[in-house]
Amino acid sequence: MEREIISAMQTQAAKNSNLAVWSLILGITSLVFCCLPAAVPAIICGHLARSKARQAPDTCSGSGMALAGLITGYVSVVAFIVACILGIMAAIAVPSVIKLFREEQKSEHIENSNANAPAVETSQSE
Amino acid sequence: MTEGKVDVKFSEWIQQGWELYKANIGVWIVASLLAVLISLATAAILSGPMMAGLVWMALALVDRKEPKPQIGDVFKGFDYFLQSFLFFLVWGIIMLAISVISLIPCIGTLVVIAISIVLHTALMFGLFLIVDKKMDFWPASMLSLNTVKPNFFPFLGLLVVAMLIGHVGAIACGIGLIVTMPIAVCILAVAYRNVFGAQAAA
Which residues from chain A sit within 8 angstroms of residue B41, using beta carbons? Predict the structure, then answer.
């Protein structure tokens, strides 16, 4: 009986610790690959592991790992959102910048052709 | 708490640190490879706990804990995650703010280098105190500062030598850093244990 209790406790501790480890692994993966599908489970696993560690501090370990997973998960979510905003801004800004650049080139071309026109005319008259 | 004059045994501590490293070279190389890779992969977010893991391993070796630290023990730093993270974050931000001085022409860069060396020396035992005495990052920083202050130049010399040895590997495209960095950690661990005494061992 005693043996069973100890093994159950060990399994429980391992289970919670696994959650923390998974949170950390997923958090690092999400940060490296800027991957939202890894960040969300990292955050979930981190919160679960931390709440379990808070409920049973004697049997559960890995609170620090879970916190690390949470932070890396949240950082990658923020990075993803920032990247999305920058992407949208770039998508809006780039065509208008190109358009402006082309217009400037066009006007420069016209100015150049106007400046060269009298010279061409004099050479033709000669 | 050690805040008075300390006898800095330069060569003895370096030799002891080297012996600790030499006896466990395989474990150290793999552990520091893990620490560097994870720190780089997470844009230095996890460099605090990974360094805390290396510090834990070094202190365990100094205290001759049994069983000897294994490669996986580098993750023990996560037990001190919050404080080690804050230690790196806060002092990193302070250093970043100070580096604005480098915009001053001529002397700016020199001033920043001088401040950075002073700060590194003052905080050399900060992470060790967080790991060993489970202190919060700010009291640990202040205790490290107060300990180093009366013996600033001997400790500065020790840190410079440890860092030179530890960063020799950086010459080989930075890859050698993985091999040499733990030597600096071992030397500082020996120094820490001699300065703060074994009674503080967790």
Answer: 28, 31-32
Domain count, chain A: 1
| Cβ proximity of B126 and B87 under 8 Å | yes
pLDDT in tens, A5-16: 445 444 444 555
Question: Per the CB < 8 Å rule, is B81 touching A65?
Answer: yes
Among the listed residues B162, B149, B136, B148, the one whose alpha carbon sits nearest the alpha carbon of residue B196: B148
d(C-alpha A3, C-alpha A12), whole Å: 14
Residues of A in contact with B45 (CB under 8 A): 31, 68, 71-72, 75
Length of chain A: 126
Q: What is the ipTM of this complex?
A: 0.74
Q: Which of B182, B141, B144, B172 is nearest to B51 (CA)?
A: B182
Domain spans in chain B, listed from the N-terminal domain onward = 10-196
Owning domain of residue A38: 2-125
Q: In 3D, which of B26, B30, B34, B62 has the Cα closest to residue B50?
A: B34
The string over B44-78, giving b where at least 16 C-beta atoms fall within 10 Å of a residue's C-beta and e elsewhere, is: ebbbbbbbbbbbbbbbbbbeeeeeebeeebbbbbb
At A21-57, the pLDDT tens digits run: 999 999 999 988 877 889 999 999 999 998 888 887 7
Render pLDDT for B94-130 as a digit per residue (tens, 0 to 9).
Answer: 999 998 888 888 788 888 989 999 999 999 999 999 9
User: Looking at beta carbons, which residues of chain A come within 8 Å of B78?
Assistant: 24, 62, 64-65, 68
Q: Is the pLDDT of residue A84 over 50?
A: yes
Q: Does B89 touch chain A (CB under 8 A)?
A: no
- Predicted confidence at residue B3, as pLDDT, reads 57
CB contact under 8 A, B78 and A65: yes
Interface of B with A in 37-56 (CB under 8 A): 38, 41-43, 45-46, 49
